[in-house]
Structure formats: C-alpha cells, structure tokens
Design brief:
It is a single chain. Strands 3-4-8-7-6-5 form a 6-stranded antiparallel sheet. It has one domain: Metal Binding Protein, Guanine Nucleotide Exchange Factor, Chain A (Beta Complex). It is built from 3 helices and 9 strands, in the order αααβββββββββ. The protein has 161 residues and is α+β, with helices and mostly antiparallel strands.
C-alpha cells in the first residue's frame, strides 16, 4: 500500500492532534472534583477581573506587572481563589522573569497537568483545593529542587509575618 499524503495534509493532521490534546486536558481538568467548587458567576463575584482571567481562564499577567514579584518580606502566599496556603517566603527567589518564582510549594498545595497552549508541552500548576490556574513549573530553578514555579502574582495573596 502506498501512502500519498501531502505536507499540507500532514500539517492539518498535526494541528488536529494538538487541538485534541489541548481540549482533552481542559476536559479532564473540568471533570476533576475539588474541595472548593463554585459556579462561574460565583467566581466572577469573588475575584477581580484579572484574578478571574488567570485563575479560571488560564490567563497570564504581563511580566513585572504584579507587586508580588518584588515582595521580599517574610510571610506566606495563598491562593486568591480559595485562600489555601501555597508557598512560604523562604522558597521565593528572583528568577529575572518578571513573575514571582519559588523553588518549592507547600506539600500538597499544588497539582500539575500538561499544558499545550503554546504548542509545546509545559507543566501547568494549579491549586489543589480549587483548581485555579497559578502558572507553570520549569526545571531551571535553584537548589535544592532545581524547580522554578513561575506563578502569576495576581493568582496569589501575600500575608506578611
């Protein structure tokens, strides 16, 4: 049997596969049950438009736009959606990316999933309690974990000690 497929057909098939992967991830996340669940209207009433866009619609704030990027006091970082403790200030570092970065979350505070929004796979980080999108984690962070949890500051609330 001879295959006679054009480059254009291969590209179309690849794009369809990518769309299926993206849709599948979002469907799986939508089906997962979380301790804190609210209707879309309830989330909109609770969150600012910027928080809603990031936490509930997987948006990203502009780099350097959040005051938490330059927050250096001792304290704790909580999910802006459900107030779950996410990070301790001792794990925060300056990554130079324009987003608050941490090398380790509080145990059990976050979950991850694969994100294909930029075509290549990335590891998305979300709150384990409400499922809110927080950012992404990369393997270019400092010791001791080597991880860089690159978070949207608008998705968090800081409480100083």
């Amino acid at each position: 049997m001879e295959w006679n497929i054009s480059r254009k057909q291969v590209l179309k098939l690849a794009l369809l596969g990518l769309a299926a992967a993206i849709t599948g991830r979002r469907v799986l996340m939508a089906r997962k049950r979380f301790e804190v669940e609210k209707s879309d209207d309830e989330w909109r009433a609770l969150l600012t438009p910027e928080q809603y866009n990031v936490l509930r619609r997987h948006g990203t704030e502009h780099p350097g736009s959040c005051a938490l990027t330059s927050e250096h006091r001792e304290g704790t970082f909580y999910c802006a959606g459900c107030r779950q403790l996410l990070f301790e200030s001792g794990t925060k570092f300056d990554s130079g990316t324009g987003w608050p970065s941490f090398f380790e979350p509080v145990p059990g505070a976050v979950e991850t999933s694969v994100d294909f929004d930029l075509i290549y796979p990335r590891t998305e980080v979300h709150c384990s309690r409400c499922g809110g999108h927080l950012g992404h984690v990369f393997d270019d962070g400092p010791a001791p974990t080597g991880k860089r949890y690159c978070m949207n500051g608008v998705a968090m609330i800081f409480k100083p000690r």
